[in-house]
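Hi team,

As requested, here is the filled-out complex form for the aspartic acid run. I kept the field names the same as last time so the parser does not choke. Let me know if anything looks off before we queue the next batch.

— J.
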Amino acid sequence: MDFNSFNIKVVKFGGSSLADAEHFKKVADIIHADPTRIFVVPSAPGKRFSGDTKVTDMLYECYNTVTAGGDVDSVFGRICERYNLIIEGLGLDYDLTEEFNHIKWAIGHSAGRDYAASRGEYLNGLILSKYLGYDFIDPARYIRFFDDGSFDSEVTNALLSEELKKHDNGVIPGFYGSMPNGTIRTFSRGGSDITGSIVARAASADLYENWTDVSGFLMADPRIVDNPQGISYITYRELRELSYMGATVLHEDAIFPVRFAGIPINIRNTNMPEDPGTIILSHTEMYDSKHIITGIAGKKGFCVITIEKPMMNSEKGFGRKVLEAIEQENISFEHLPSGIDTMSVVLNRSEISSCRERIVNRICNAVEPDAITIEEGLALIAVVGRGMVKSKGTAVRVFKAVADAGINIRMIDQGSSELNIIIGVDENDFEKAMRAIYTEFVD
Ligand code: ASP
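And here is what came back:
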């Protein structure tokens, strides 16, 4: 498949890609280099250098200041300055004073927290549409949420696809839409990725390009493994597994609209547009990966509750009662590796810190175990790859690599999809285990 032969591409640019005028120029070059890049979704200006503040964060600060009865002049002034610097750097004849005044007034008059935050994308969208000569399409009119705040995908898709048909091109600011009563509602942080995906679906795009400051996904975290290889192709499912474990390039919820429509996502680097990046697809059979594994990701900060009781396997409702006890504390469990007379529940340590005792008591009351223990300091590592499905010996290689590095495996979990193997190791062994597995499969 030749990815340059598409008719409609939706291109989303992250905050670091639109942080200043120089980046706007790079973005315009990328868009103009390919006439099929028709619909553009911008984020708000991000950090220009380490220690800089994102415009979205400054807008939240404005809101907080107003609600605390303070004066927003100084922080709002800095926001206006950021945009004016961009306008000036681009040599545009464009004056946003009226917009600024209105926004400042609205933030001061109960327009809400989400309204305040959304103005970062809104203003960046206005400037970008002016600079590109593209139509400005305000998502408040088309991206809709239900009363309970959840995203209304079907009404949105109907409204937005109708609208997009009327435009040859357009800039649609990311991150927000509106509630049934017309107030502005944002997605969670990083949500412009979701808007890009929604627009790609509504435009029946052939490709959703997500431009950021890295050249796609790497096979492992570069802070742990030296110079890891890039991933050329990955499936949505593999990506879900890796993102769950902390591989963060794309907002998790951005996958659903395009996955539903079968539209591939291409993660690209605005500062290195020649890099092909990573392509995320439903099926990658035609793109055999060089390696059995696609990637490794992991996280520290887990703990395991182990419950022992002879004959628990024949006690009906045992597992349900244990999980109910955890649910009653409003906590979700991560994994459930079980033996014959033992059941272990892996949980996020930060979530249970305030209710450990209560959970233990609830479980004791519910199932009367012989013993119950909580072990801290667990790190989980997920080895993920479509190449692992039905290939023999992958698990052995993972375990041997870890054992050869002198590391004890505290937990093993392999989903029946065979797409991943998750192992639990002591937090102190985490980095060493990641490196050992990477070296076994990649180097
Ligand atoms: N500007 C928003 C944020 O900082 C949304 C985004 O960039 O995707 O979270």
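Two things worth flagging: The chain has 14 helices and 14 strands. The chain has a mean pLDDT of 92.

Thanks,
J.
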